[in-house]
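Researcher: Go.
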Amino acid sequence: MQVTLTAVSDAECRITYGSQLAENMVCFEGNYNEGNCFGDSGSPITQYISRGYVIAHAISSFFSANGCESTDPSGYTKLFPYSDWIHNVIYNNNYKIMPSI
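Model: Structure:
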């Protein structure tokens, strides 16, 4: 399933989550009932570029204790801080992926 989410500022996200929001995290919110829920951990935040290229920016980490249908933002772990590690895991295990642009 695909939904459109909007990034939330760190300051706004900290109103809900306080110190749980680490520097390597970002929050997103969607319309009612379009955020994270049970079973969504690890789901990506992606951006469609052009000609079929997609960039993954973050992966789902947590949602509000107020429930899936809450209007609270959901927390995601940014992928960029881990890009070297991801690259090493992929290439050291001979996974076939498209080259970087």
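Model: The chain has a mean pLDDT of 85.
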